[in-house]
Amino acid sequence: MSHDPTSDQEPVNSSRRQFLNQTVALAGAAGAAGVTLGLAGCKKEEPAAGATAGAAAPVSATSAAAAAKEEMLHPHPGELDTYYGLWSGGHTGDMRILGFPSGRELHRIPCFVPDVLVGWGITNESKEVMGTKADGTLKYTVADTHHVHATYKDGNYDGRYAFINDKINSRVARIRLDYFICDKITELPNVQGFHGIFPDKRDAVNPDINYSTRLFAGGEFHQPMPNDGHGLDDVAAYRVLFSCLDIESMEVRWQALIDGNCDLVATSFDGKLAASNQYNVENGAVFAEMMSAERDACIFFNIARIEEAVKAGKFTTIGDSKVPVVDGTRASNTDPKTALTAYVSVPKNPHGVNASPDGKYFICAGKLSPTATVIQLDKVLAWFDGSLPNIDDAIVAEVEIGLGPLHTAFDGRGNAYTTLFLDSQIVKWNVDAAIRFHGGDNTAKYVVDRLDVHYQPGHINATHSETMKADGQWLAVGCKFSKDRYLPVGPLHAENEQIVDISGEKMRLVSEHPVRPEPHDFVIMRREIISTRQTYNMDEFPLAVKSFGDSGITRDGKKVTVRLASQAPTFSMTEFRVKQGDEVTIILTNIDTIEDLTHGFAIHRYNINFIVNPQETKSVTFVADKPGVYWAYCTHFCHALHLEMRLRMIVEPA
Amino acid sequence: MSHDPTSDQEPVNSSRRQFLNQTVALAGAAGAAGVTLGLAGCKKEEPAAGATAGAAAPVSATSAAAAAKEEMLHPHPGELDTYYGLWSGGHTGDMRILGFPSGRELHRIPCFVPDVLVGWGITNESKEVMGTKADGTLKYTVADTHHVHATYKDGNYDGRYAFINDKINSRVARIRLDYFICDKITELPNVQGFHGIFPDKRDAVNPDINYSTRLFAGGEFHQPMPNDGHGLDDVAAYRVLFSCLDIESMEVRWQALIDGNCDLVATSFDGKLAASNQYNVENGAVFAEMMSAERDACIFFNIARIEEAVKAGKFTTIGDSKVPVVDGTRASNTDPKTALTAYVSVPKNPHGVNASPDGKYFICAGKLSPTATVIQLDKVLAWFDGSLPNIDDAIVAEVEIGLGPLHTAFDGRGNAYTTLFLDSQIVKWNVDAAIRFHGGDNTAKYVVDRLDVHYQPGHINATHSETMKADGQWLAVGCKFSKDRYLPVGPLHAENEQIVDISGEKMRLVSEHPVRPEPHDFVIMRREIISTRQTYNMDEFPLAVKSFGDSGITRDGKKVTVRLASQAPTFSMTEFRVKQGDEVTIILTNIDTIEDLTHGFAIHRYNINFIVNPQETKSVTFVADKPGVYWAYCTHFCHALHLEMRLRMIVEPA
To answer: Which chain A positions have a beta carbon within 8 Å of B636's beta carbon?
Structure first.
């Protein structure tokens, strides 16, 4: 199984090198200056002054556009990306921020899992966000994030918040997109292994609210309700909850009891519908049962009706939870006129469901079926209004696209791009043509293009794909296996994120990046959408130590509070003294005001490390159980005298 | 403080775009085919068949070399890098593995800090490596890694092991370079805040051992010996220990009690000397004291003499530690004929010390002094032999190079490259010329080139820099501040790793990558050096569950053992049943044999997540304290039916 990297020393597909040699040769025929200029340019130096006359020669629009796109993939040192990418960290439990299309990782935002760089899960403030047990330790330290979505306004991203889910412990986290930090985490009651999330895009009732106010979360694993030890073997009675959160309070507004296991979630641009693709409508507990039915479902939620039902008191609660739960099971929702939910049938064990940017369709990917199912939303609404007799008549296309369809992205020009897990391909197909073909027009060629990717693609997304501003420029695809694409690093392989230029008729694979498993889903938005702040406002921190003069140590019985400030290259105190057994709280404010001037704070053998960004305040609390001299030092390089930036905690023996 | 990214929408220094336009224009003069070919190539498509005749035209060697270098920076999809980079994670506590010179991050190896992806700090096997308290919880969960070094053979890297230090808790970890995993961690006794590490390059006594067997670790913060609560205020008696570990057992062989705070460590190619640059020879406890002396030191250790002294019983021990401690303090080592250590004076608060690849010199960077000090090693040995009266006569050059010198790399052609923190520059200087200048030859121009970097560079290293095979191709520099180089992501900025082509007379900044703070040090070696294994050998795991038939559940009182196997897309059991209060141990073997086919295992609300790579076995132990149905599922995408890969843990109420 060992890999011999030397065998790849001379890559076969060295088309770029050939291009350079050939271009030089051709340019050489036009004059020696061309040779020098050409290579200097590709070496990214400034072009020689004497050769700039060439720039005045006519250049086709296509050529200039291609050159500009190439430049965006490999920005010169100092050039900025055009897009932000917000990426799920998978079972690293964080959110990754990329510059796009360069694919450069700019940041990882800790959410559900402790992070020793930031001090996430170490400081008192982060523990409060993450949630603790009665003894003050963290309730959870593992997570498995899958999906990232961001708030909308007027059908496009608005740069307020992003959200990310934790499948293991049924949590959802909110990210502030000004500071790029997680500020709220909610654990969903009576939900196990929840998977898809999506915010609404406008209000279901009030047309003035043309922005996100709700977040939907599809429960995946079925369980006894509540899961308290009763009904362990009554598998037929296991159920799943679909949840709706308020994005400002991050509290759960309502839940719906449903059949089947929810996979991904989609929402309509008119705010009226949310949906989730479902596998295991059989409610099976073992593998064979989960796959026994030939068709599963895409479940639609009528948001306005559900919220009317809650208002009218037509709900129950489950166990200790106070959240209103409406009945969205199939058996209770057969009458379209009163139904809260509608189950549209889709082929066997589907996976992703995605909303087309024209607002007309949800597209379900077949997974075990080689098909995509196109559901027309106004027909779903017609069923709820009683004017469409059969809910499955909302299906306007169900066409073969390839093996193992999982997720779909859009270019805003009527085309869908679906990952084919088994074929290791992306298929580009035209939605209108698929509808015509399904309608009987055998001449309709709906498959436009196919592209091999490497290997086994899962999630896919395009720039502004699920917004009304889908710009059809770039597509990213998360490939689950990288196999031989990178230098071997032992048994755990990176996954492979590939970037595809979709601005033309044919897709072009233009670059790829290794990524720590496993990214799952992501969204990509133009940089103008997001407006960030690089220093904190000290007044936002009630504990702030506003100056060196404001620092000091106070005692209340065995509780000692140490108030510290940092300013490169010193802390405000050179030492502090406590007694063995004291409960010590250290409050540290970074009073440096310069952007990027972050300090760290670690204490030897006391298992403490955290950073303070400019104007930020954080605190930690611990028991001084070991006597001796313990140096606390700055861990974040801040100044030429950074190594000298330290102080002594002196713990006197009890 | 907010950043307006739109202002950078049209980069000014778009030399590459200009190049493309100009080249196209020039190529166009040679024929229309050239236009098409040129742009298609830069778009990375295969060149058109009809245009390949151009490749036969003559190409200069320089041009071809430049094109090849460009290609290495931005490999085509599927092309491999030429070098491995082993990078410190800083206060993320792990080791990063990069493909180089592309800078792509291929892997992060958890060492000192839990990692929820791998299950590091969660599985029983990883807890044993990391170290636990009496109650079974991890002793430490934070770390601050600084330096990465790798084993040598015949003066070059040999691909056996790498090492990385944790400054907060005085630990050193060993990485196996076949599996790219951490397999041993040692906590150094009576050491606080240790910083530099370096393996020896051959044995000090036995010439047959021309490979690494020892690892040296320089203690940084001074403390009472032992640090048990006595002598808290007797700062003048605080001391530091320099440690030597055996790289096979990872046990500490000996320590030396010394004056001053050790910064970086270097070792000689002949195996006879180790050294550490020292600030705070004043042994000051506060900032002003640490900077009071005009000169500090580079301390040299005579390895053979120290080991003779240990063998002869000339050592003490400190506190509970059994490690022999020799006396290396300045006062006890004034007689060269018996000295174990030598303190060479270097200007105020120096930082890095680096061994030149010709084996002749150690170079100390001045930090607070704008100088580099060149120490000739055979003169240090002459002092130990009694033939050099004054140890400072081993200094053969002390020359001004710029403000804030920190670390030095080498190209194997006699040049040194030193980072200038305050000047935000790299200075390339010639060592022989510096020696001539220091010797009085005012015509000797030792500064060869300067290059601006962005911003405030710390560590620097070049391909094979500190080996006898320094190849002078590429240099990487870790810049501590990125400021405006990337899209803003709130207050915590990425740091900036820049890559420099050093193959020519002038340095060329060719690319840059954002990196999560903070990388500190790194080494870069050719890919042929490292030979990895992508699947485990099942026989290496005594607990292995070798087949689905081998799985099952056994009980011993309240202790339950669940033996599980995984093979895509199922686990070997569909459920298992325990009683509330049971201590459950789950052993999981991944019996899949296919490279890259990793499975995960998470249990809802039980705070468990880990992966098993092909043929690997891991185990976890926990108390089943919550009754109910808890799904365990695969977290690592493995198969089209990955979502269906799960089983029920049924916890019956007590």
So the answer is: 91, 517-518
